[in-house]
Specification:
Layout lengths: L13 H11 L2 H16 L2 E2 L7 H5 L7 E5 L24 H14 L10 H5 L2 E5 L4 E2 L11 H15 L4 E5 H5 L11 E5 L4 H4 L9 H11 L8
Parallel strand pairs: 2-3, 2-5, 5-6
Antiparallel strand pairs: 1-4
Length: about 230
Amino acid sequence: MHKNTEIVDVEIGTSWKKILNDEFEKDYFKNLMSFVTNEYQNHQCFPKMSTLFKAFELTPFDKVKVVILGQDPYHNDDQADGLAFSVPESSTIPPSLKNIFKEIASDLEVKTALHGNLENWASQGVLLLNAVLSVRAHQAGSHKNKGWELFTNQVIQVLSEEREDLIFMLWGGFAKKKVKLIDSEKHLILESGHPSPLSANRGYWFGNKHFSQANTDLIGRNQQPISW
């Protein structure tokens, strides 16, 4: 039994706190925080509790340019770091992220990083958002349907409503369902298959050119492109 005494602290950054303040007062969110606290106290969970809201801390609300949606944090040791698809520099690059890097290399004709830490993207305005922000070790999907999805759906919706000209990258069936939360009149929505080997090897991922499309869109609006 994994036992610690940590209590979830919603360290989410000032800009997000202001935008999502009402959400934190809702019963579902309070219940979610109780559930998560209990899970972390009694089981090994990922990512570290202190990095649960890292995506928000590294990418303030008014700095978001691109939103990339993931589903669930990595559930194996030394992988989940609080950012969707990202892993610590010391970890092996997971298969989906390898395929993301392959597409970037082909699309932009650049060399990609030798590690899987995506903090550099986050600091440039790429919100790397998982739908569910925590998981019990070695049990994929173990924190689904506990309230995280209500919270992250609200994040997507508030970005769609309050911001303009964002780029949403929706990869795979799960992410594509979020399209109903996004105003396509105001934002660029890029959809493709998931970068996981199963989907990518069937031809649903490679060649989507999402990274060049995103940068072309940003440059067209006199914004700094992302250094992928």
